[in-house]
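Example record

The entry below shows one chain as it appears in the dataset: sequence first, then structure tokens.
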Amino acid sequence: MKILVLNSGSSSVKYQLLEMEPEQLIAKGLVQRIGSEKSSLTHQVVGKPDKSIQKHILDHTQAIHTMMDVLTDPQEGVVKDAREIVAVGHRVVHGGESFSQSVPISQEVLDTIYDNISLAPLHNPPNIKGIEASMHELPDSLQVAVFDTAFHQTIPREAFLYALPYNLYKKHGIRRYGFHGTSHRYVAHQAQRWLEGIPLEQQKVVTCHLGNGASIAAVKGGHSVDTSMGLTPLEGLLMGTRCGDVDPAAVLYIMEQQGLTLSEIDTLMNKRSGLYGVSGESNDMREVLKRAEKGLYRSMLAAKIFCYRIKKYLMAYAGAMGGLDAIVFTGGIGENSARVRKMSVSDLEQVGIILDRKKNEELRGEGAVQTEDSKVRILVIPTNEELVIARDAKEVYLEEQNKRAA
């Protein structure tokens, strides 16, 4: 059973083709700079040299058409016919309160994703373009929406409501939604293997998805009960170019002092802040840490703020859950930066979080990096959001087949 996974951005389409029995990657690729004369497709087949195509790709429909041409190429393709792909799993950033699980895409579902554009104006429109292009190019495949927000729909009201007039929630849906749900769900599930002896319903885990976008989730009994991102992906941790938590009145003050418009303050907080804004140099943690090692103050400060906020959320969520069994680091930074992991859990020995520095430095891939006497497991688990999307697409496909058979 072959499943195609699509992640459609404003000017790009990432894809993976998986054989689900067993779960194996067949091919993956990236179409980038859609709409530009410098458009390109980079295609990788497992066990074969990479392939690159340079051509003017006008829109998402042409991007997916070009992708399918490569996947079904008579000489070099990995499928003989597009109908071999039984389902396409689409990453959709915002499902609002409408979706708590992955669903087959009907016109009603698509209309609801359109309705949620106001909650994710940068993300949902390109997600929709990818869906509509896939419907056109793969009409025989079941289209499945997998929502970043769905995993967090189990968060209780006291955690997701803001202390604003209640009618703003009822009328406009102003509340905490959370994101990176597929990643948090995957690593929380993987962490269960490291928590043998603790019944699932009693497990208390904090998952830290750390990359250019970063968020933390409190996962109790396998369900998300709180998360750092809010109505939008701007709230919470300091990120590559996003400011994270900030006093709302500071936003108004900056607008007044700098004479900024709504669009300009949005750009400042989303694209000029975070690691980039504090360091003044880069939004890449690797570069920030290199400069910090050279003694550059603002880079040192950016790294410290990043890790301090992680530590603060860790302890807040341990309190909210009434304890903590494991911390999971994932994402590009969480998986690869031993220094960030070390700084994020430093000085927490008195609450039973004790890092083994040697294990932490030497670990490559998945593993545990706490000491033998640490009461809390410190885990590094590489995320696999595409696999989560593929699994969900397979499950929805089988459910639809069973309905038809009945």
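Notes for this example: Residues 2-147 form a domain with the Nucleotidyltransferase; domain 5 fold (CATH 3.30.420.40). The chain has a mean pLDDT of 96.
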